[in-house]
Amino acid sequence: MQFQFAQQGLTWHDTYFLAEGLLNTIQLAASATAVGTIGGVVLGWVRTVSVTARVATTPIVDILRSVPMIIQLILANSFLSIMGFSTSPFIFGTVALGAWMSAVTAEVVRAGLLSVPSHYRKSARSLGMNRLQELVHISFPLAFRTALAPWINLVLSLIKDSALAGVIGYVEYMRATQTLITRTHETWILLLGAGLLYFIICYPVSKYSRRLERKIAV
Amino acid sequence: MIEIRSVRKTFGPLEVLKGISLDVNKGELLCLLGASGSGKSTLLQCINGLEPIQGGEIVVDGVSVHDSKTNINTLRRKLGIVFQQYNAFPHLTALENVALAPRVVAKRGRAEARALAQKHLDHVGLGSKAGSLPSRMSGGQQQRLAIARALAMEPSYMLFDEVTSALDPELVGEVLETMRLLKGEGMTMVVVTHDIGFARESADRVAFLHQGEVCEIGTAADLIDNPQKSQTQKFLRRERQVPLAAVERTVA
User: Looking at the domain assignment, is residue A200 inside a domain?
Assistant: First the structure.
């Protein structure tokens, strides 16, 4: 009797598996975007406050954006495990991707803040606004307009980089696809599907950003 | 009353204000004249604490501006300022520009702040522009908007820093008209300007600044029609020649 795999071809059941992967991809990308953006706004603002603050935070930014994501993921995973934090791959992925997102967003935020002409700040202060009020009502809204397009770029990169979180055992869409390829050898159709799916996730994001950009144009 | 007492201001090795003393009385319009670099704009920005000073004191209604115990943000509500560059906040409509500070600084309700803003826009003749973004307004309208925005904080003093210098000539009139309107209402104003005509006709007193010092001060009639110091005479002669030379160039 010839040896046979139980399930060799693709079945309808596999779509559940892929759908789960898709959901995981979206969850990871969303949480890392949220964490990374909040971190990046704070870090980016800190980096405009003084030269000391900028010099002090430069190593973090440089390391996080220069080391390949896959290495960061593996190192973060091993390091955090050695430190005794044993938690879900989702948290590890969020931390690693979010840290990268913070570093790159920080530079976009810094550029946005630096692009706000100083006379708007001066006007705001002359009306009696304190630094925080000025930041919230004038500098951040104006910086947002400059930073929006490059920030969307980063979000799209992040969505695609989330495909690397498979290396730390997080079953996102790419990992799910690879698993199925290993079993079924339906390489073409599965990879095409994956490519299409990432496009379907990313395209609305860039489409929406263009609409937003038009809406807030000054 | 604004009392300026031997104020010194330096930018690195450069001393821009060399011990200036000057009083601004309630209800008067004081014009500051002087060549570029004479320190007049810097002095104006020192009055509301936008620039720190290195010596002397500026006292507004009994409160020392540069004292570290002074709450500068509270004090600034008394001192409206309008700058040379148009600086209406570009992401806010005219109405929002004016309503912002009353809402966040003076803590007025949203509806109240908007009503107040509309009142001040009407006042400077921009009532119909309430919903426009600054990019849809002319330079003159933007400067009037900046005036309305400062007025909405109900200041006791208004400071004008060469507000017409960046404007096309045909837009200067409407801004000066708005300033005359304020003067007519009894607002205390300090106006840095190159417009000798405006100073002569609207100012109560004129101070001529030369190299960081008050060179000459007096009534508009005295100082402009009959200047005593040679620097003042030279400055006024040169300022008057500029328009003439420009006319000659275009005619020739």
Answer: no
Q: In the structure, how many helices (H) and strands (E) does chain B have?
A: 9, 10
CA distance A173 to A175: 6
Contact call for A120 and B87, based on CB within 8 A: yes
Based on the structure, what is the number of domains in chain B?
1
What pLDDT, in 10s, does the model give residues A156-201? 999 999 999 888 888 899 999 999 999 888 899 999 999 999 999 9
Within a domain: A129: yes
A52 touches B at CB < 8 Å: no
Cα–Cα dist A146/A112, whole Å: 5
**pLDDT for position A9:** 79
Q: Is A8 helix (H, G, I), strand (E, B) or coil?
A: coil
Task: Report the b/e string of A36-52 with b at 16+ CB within 10 A.
Answer: bbebbbebbbbbbeeee
> What's the confidence (pLDDT) of residue A5?
58
Mean pLDDT, residues B47-55 taken together: 92
In chain A, the number of structural domains is: 1
d(CA B205, CA B219) in angstroms, rounded, equals 4
| Nearest alpha-carbon partner for B180 in B197, B167, B155, B166 | B197
Domain assignment of residue A140, yes or no: yes
Cβ-defined contact of B104 to A129 (cutoff 8 Å): yes
Min distance B102 CA to chain A CA atoms (Å): 9
Entry pTM: 0.84
For A:144-163, CB contacts with B below 8 A are 145
10 Å Cβ neighbour count for B10? Answer: 14
CATH number at residue A53: 1.10.3720.10
Give percent of chain B above pLDDT 70: 96
CATH of the domain at B83: 3.40.50.300
User: pLDDT digit string (tens) for B170-208?
Assistant: 889 899 999 999 999 999 999 999 888 899 989 999 999
ipTM of the complex: 0.86
Beta carbons of B106 and B98 less than 8 angstroms apart: no
| Sequence letter at residue A2 | Q
Q: Is residue A2 part of a domain?
A: no
A128 with B90: Cβ contact below 8 A: no
Please give the torsion angle defined by the CA atoms of residues B28, B33, B39 and B42, in that order, rounded to the nearest 10 degrees: 40
Helix pair angle (A12-49, A187-215), 10° resolution: 40
Task: Return the structure tokens found at B32.
Answer: 């500051």
